[in-house]
Each structure stands twice: as C-alpha cells, then as structure tokens.
Write a structure and sequence with these properties.
With 153 residues, the chain is mostly helical. It contains 5 helices and no strands. The chain has one domain.
C-alpha cells in the first residue's frame, strides 16, 4: 500500500517536472505574440498617429513579459536578456528596442516593416515548438513516473 502511495507521488512529481520544463515554450510564444502585435500597432502609429513610444506601450500593455521588458528598457535603457531565447533572438530584440522611436517616420516605417517578416517567422516557429514540445514533455514526465512506479512495485 505504501509503495502505491509513493508511486503516485512520484508520477505526480515527474509529471509536474515535465510541465515545468515545457513552460518555456509557452512563454516564448506569448512573448513573440505580444511582440508581433506591438509591431503591428507601431506600424499604424507611425503612419497615422504621433504618440510617443512610451505612451503607446502604456496604452497597449497586456501585462506580459514583452511589455515588462520594453517598459524597463524605455525607462532606464538597460536590456534584460530573455533566458529562453537564443543569442541571435536576444540581439534582435535589443536592436528593435534601440531603434524604435529613433529617427524620422520614413526610416521607422522601413524598420518596422523589415522587423515584421522576422517577427512573423519567430512567432510561427514558437507556435510550432509549443505544439510539439509542451505535450511531449508532459507525456514524457508522466511516462517516466509510471516507469519508476512499476519498478518500485
């Protein structure tokens, strides 16, 4: 009886570990979704509005990690790297933060249009990886727990 209880605890623990490992794919997709949406907003603001970058951020803040990081950057110009990004992705985000709001409307429009394609690619890749790996790690954690439970029993 005691072995069954221990086995169930182990299955729950390993399933939770699988869930915890897979969360980075969710956060990465969420970051890129907010980033892509912000880029679309910037596109329309540059073309039609004359608001500052800070006011655009405050108006559209969804409370996610993207808006937290861009707010911190705008306030003190210190970029905090995203842990689950590759170096090239972090460099892209930093370059975007540095460039946005600088220069005239024409150069800003060109920059935002150029970033649009790359952001779309990153977002599609993040969505694909989330679909692939979130369930994989969850199932893998569950299966490892079951195997350990069988070995214990």
């Amino acid at each position: 009886m005691f072995n069954v209880v221990i086995g169930c605890v182990i299955v729950a623990f390993t399933t939770y570990l699988g869930y915890a490992v897979s969360k980075k794919y969710y956060f990465k997709r969420k970051f890129y979704q907010s980033f892509y949406d912000f880029n679309l907003i910037m596109k329309s603001e540059i073309a039609f509005g004359r608001n500052t970058v800070k006011s655009i951020i405050e108006k559209n803040d969804d409370g996610g990690e993207f808006y937290k990081k861009i707010k911190r950057y705008v306030e003190n110009e210190k970029y905090e790297r995203v842990d689950y990004f590759a170096e090239s992705e972090n460099d892209f985000v930093l370059n975007y933060y540095k460039t946005i709001g600088e220069g005239d409307a024409v150069s800003q429009t060109k920059f935002v249009d150029g970033a649009d394609g790359r952001l779309k690619k990153y977002l599609e890749e993040a969505c694909l990886n989330e679909k692939k790996y979130r369930t994989l790690y969850l199932k893998l954690g569950f299966m490892v727990g079951l195997i350990i439970m069988i070995i214990i029993l």
